[in-house]
Amino acid sequence: MRLLSWNIHKGIGGRDRRYSLARIIACIEAENPDIICLQEVDRIVRRSQFDDQPRLLAGSFRFHSVFQPNVPVGNGAYGNLVLSRWPVASRHRITLRQDARKPRGAQLLLIDSPEGILHLVHTHLGLAESERRWQMDRLLGHMLFRSADPLPTLIVGDLNDWRNTLSEGSLAANGFSQVTSPVSRFRSFPSWLAVGSLDKAFVRGGILVRQARVVRTSLSRVASDHLPVVVDFHLDEAR
Predict the structure, then answer these.
(1) Residue of 237, 219, 239, 235 whose CA lies nearest to 227
(2) What is the pTM of this model?
(3) Domains of the chain from N-terminus onward
(4) Cα distances (Å, whole numbers) of residue 56 to 14, 41, 83
(5) Using one digit for the tens of pLDDT, what is the confidence trace for 52-69?
């Protein structure tokens, strides 16, 4: 099974500042993922030509679609989007907003894959280190997250973790191991000259990771300000 995670920057190129959802779609299609986790997805916002990006992306791939609008922009919003080749058996979303900071959130989905149920957690964390620690603690302690404890769990997204500190603390205490390590192999930001490993994945409980990599192509370097991360994995009990 293949998962792709990507901060698509609303479909606006990191260097040329040109809006093109077609470039995003072409990059994703080239990787042929089964599950697509996208951050900074616009819905009805001027900067992206008032496109309903969740609808357009879901229609392009003909996948099951779950959108979480987090940040209001005019009459629209942007947020997190999961597209899945397989049915979504359960979906929840929780807020990770701390005080008056920018709204953040997480999606908690049960994906009914051919190898069994996958607990997928998709998020985009804040810019301050203390905020990210609070957000991760809130996520891991939330009743909706804890209710899926027995299931294989994959946490993925743009975690904005420049110093790679989240792998310790509550994640380690809850049994998660980092897939996107060592960070020297997973630099994903900025896309044209990547120096920061901001886009990460963590797994726990019955997930066998075959390969993880950053997608470094001529198109991915211009389509967004982040590079996509791809994880190939199986559920252990299916092997």
Answers:
(1) 219
(2) 0.97
(3) 2-238 (3.60.10.10)
(4) 21, 11, 11
(5) 999 999 999 999 999 999
